[in-house]
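Risk register update: the risk of archive-format incompatibility is retired. Evidence:
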Amino acid sequence: MSSQDIPEDKHLPTEQGDAHHGGVAVADDPFADPGLPAHKPRIQDIDERAAKRSERTVAMLFTLSMLATIGFIASYVTIPVDKIVYIWPFGHVSGLNFALGVTLGIALFCIGAGAVHWARTLMSDVEVADERHPIEAAPEVKAKVLADFADGARESDIGRRKLIRNTMLGALAMVPLSGVVLLRDLGPLPEDKLRKTIWAKGKLLINQNTMEPLRPEDVAVGSLTFAMPEGLEEDQHDYMQQIAKAALMIVRIQPEDIKDKQELEWSHDGIVAYSKICTHVGCPISLYEQQTHHVLCPCHQSTFDLSDGARVIFGPAGHALPQLRIGVNDEGFLEALGDFEEPVGPAFWERG
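Archived output:
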């Protein structure tokens, strides 16, 4: 047969070694079995010293995970919530949040990295082809799975390499402690933590815009003014915690429009002072309607009537806004005559 007699769609094996599968070259058959490459042993498979080095590396990663978990718990217990630190390049951040994130990240990363290094250097890496089976496993398949699991456990050398086994178990046992210590915040708080603010008798009402003490003539009828206690500075370490409870809103109402007798007694010439913190979920109240003397929380539309003891007239808030009793000192400045008699903000378990 001459070369002219060979069909165009057929060809003979080339010098490069094209093999035929069922009369068709492998290069032309997409379903041909390419087989598996020859297994190449790793250095850890033939050199026990290299295997020991890998074992120590895995154990070191698991040990670092345990130390990071201890660091997480220590940070949570010892670092103040309001501590601010400068971390380059992030700037000023919460020291507690940064420490918790770094330590927990290291603890989880080291467990993962240790497991991956263990699998890649010490466990068997021989590729095994396994045929697909029906979804419902037959008894012989279940037996094979259990046998494969036993083979895997044996090949991992977890029984022989006790250093890896013990450090891994220690790391896995300690990581959940990070979540356990967080349950501390679900327990009861100190008695005065939520019940008291820094308002006290004699403390001046400071305008939050001008940072100057307020006089009665500074508060016009129908205006809404926000105030803070004297002595509270923005650069002090617990400023955010204190202002979150002590923030005050001041409104001047004609005395004859005030319906609640106690509210009138606790005011000065129609000037009433109420907590700015909504009693629903603690949002800051910022909207005031002069004609009705209603204030509105923009988060969930809870509405309070400042002419009637700041009682709730609409929305999900559970109780009225606490009022601060105020007066005027000898120098003509508005001052507090004590702290709020009711806890500010939303209800809590121990409130009663």
